[in-house]
Amino acid sequence: MCGIVGYIGKADAPTVLMNGLRRLEYRGYDSAGIAILDDERVLIAKAPGKVSKLNERAHADWPSSLFQRASTGIAHTRWATHGPPTEVNAHPHLDQSGEIALVHNGIIENYRSIRARLEAKGHHFYSETDTEVLTHLIGDCDKGDLFQAVCDALHQVEGTFGIAVISAREPDKIITARRGSPIVIGVGEGETILASDASAIVAYTQRVIYLDDNDIAIITKDSIDIRDLNNIPVTREIAELAFDAAAAEKGGFDHFMLKEIHEQPESLGNAIRGRLDFNLGSSVLAGMGTSPRDLAELSRIVLVGCGTSLHAGMVGEYAFEDLADVHAEVQQAAEFRYRNPILGSRDMVVAISQSGETADTLAAVREANQKGAFVMSLCNVVGSTIARETGRGVYLHAGPEISVASTKAFTCQVVVLLMMALRLGRGRRFSRDEGIRFAREIESIPMLVAKVVAQNARIAEVAADYAKNEHAFFIGRGPMFPVALEGALKLKEVSYIHAEGYHAAELKHGPIALLEQGTPIIALAVDIPGKDKMLGNIEECRARGARILGVITEGDHETAECMDDFISIPRCHPLVATIPAVVALQLFAYHVARLRGCEIDQPRNLAKSVTVE
Ligand code: M6R
């Protein structure tokens, strides 16, 4: 979603800020803007569309000497919420005096009443945004101390914010604050850079400070002074970023999505490394913070997440019930807190989120905490809000995921869930030998995935036959049902083909009415219990003219004969097979989208991290 960068340092602020914005492009946005302090004035450039357009605009409007001398500025990529993605609605916004500029992520919920109040005092607004209202409010509160003005304004707003503010009257500082939208500050030598996401910072420094909710910081080129909104100093530790700038580059691939699909043998290896115990036949997940006794006493596991993370939770549901004999259920994070969930201390709530910033998942975490459940998280982004608010959990170690379409985070989520299920299973039902056998299955996952990735060229050929369709159905049974949902989500988000995932048995309860000659059915027909029923469902589709692309088990010639086309994955445990199967579908979606000429890494209307409800 929206992205923030701020810089105060030696010089070159416009260049540093533009580079930062480019690093944030993957989050999804539809306009961009930049504000620079120069000679006690605020200069602003904005443009709808891409950062490249903003860069052209700034170079056309500003003298080239400004690019060398300006040392302070803020910049933004906007994902439209209040008002369309026009130049006028793009950030930064100015206050009434034109001397204070602000960029903002989040939503100011009570902006209408504040706007009406300020209009009554003579303020004029040019945009439809809540952000412009906040900027005017800060200007209205400013009696000669920008920090105090920001504090006073933030006391009056309801909603969420990550902000950065500059003022021509106090050119030696940037004020930044957060509530519900992340802000990370990079600590440099004679320069300080802030952003909503560490990927905009990592090229400058690995040393960062994450702000907590209701923190407000005064940043200069040499200092970072953090307080709460009541002006009480607070201490925040400096952390080291766990990735470098190269991890956020395409590394020779045409798209981040393809790169991240190919990285999966390595990312899965990182997620597994040091976490399997072949002596005990269990897994070691220290971050869970549970004793074997706690685990034995759990009565229920509730998995919450959105989108791809929700689908990973659905695979987890099968794993916990099958391996650990514990009641498990998946709930959409967006609905969780509105249905007044029944939770107690013997219920474990697992929040699953790549970004660790998804607003609905965060709200579910807070609800579960209120209800006294045992709450933990599976996040990829270290130091993210969900990871910090749950306090206990397991990091995915997938490395930065830049493509909006989640790939390596999904497979790492599933592998961590399998390791959790193994640990619970050992405490409740598995013998040591059974535990060791399943640990060996998990250990083999990177190799299984490497075999699927090696079929990239063949999957591209198969995809060519499906790229012209406008509809597709993905079907599966058992743990392959969530894989079908995930395959459909991948295809629709990157190729814009209308794709639906169904349980194979559900098709005949309605959707089968849509089948026509040649309608594509992507069938997860892997050789796992229930395959015979799956083959029956496939025949029902074939009888109505559907074209069947099967994901099947290597060497299963009988099943191959039931298909028009097939992609094979290595033989493995049914739960483990979800991972290579989904990788085949990721490659299929990628190649279909590529053939259709889609903007694969930043699909229209989508954002990498969804920080509004
Ligand atoms: O960061 P999160 O895992 O919480 O994000 C949840 C969804 O927004 C995300 O998985 C989304 O569905 C992806 N675009 C799917 O590829």
Word description of this protein:
It is a single chain. With 613 residues, the protein is α/β, with parallel strands linked by helices. It has three domains: 3-241, Aminohydrolase, N-terminal nucleophile (Ntn) domain (Glutamine Phosphoribosylpyrophosphate, subunit 1, domain 1, 4-Layer Sandwich); 256-443, Glucose-6-phosphate isomerase like protein, domain 1 (Rossmann fold); 450-613, 3-Layer(aba) Sandwich (Rossmann fold). Helices cover 37% and strands 22% of the residues. It has an eight-stranded antiparallel beta sheet with strand order 3-2-4-1-10-9-11-14, with helices on one face. Strand 17 (300-305), helix 10 (307-324) and strand 18 (327-332) form a beta-alpha-beta unit. The relative contact order is 0.09. The mean pLDDT is 94. Bound molecules: 5-amino-5-deoxy-1-O-phosphono-D-mannitol (M6R). 5-amino-5-deoxy-1-O-phosphono-D-mannitol binds next to helix 10 and helix 18.
Name a few traits of the molecule.
613 residues, alpha/beta, Glutamine Phosphoribosylpyrophosphate, subunit 1, domain 1, Rossmann fold, globular, binds 5-amino-5-deoxy-1-O-phosphono-D-mannitol
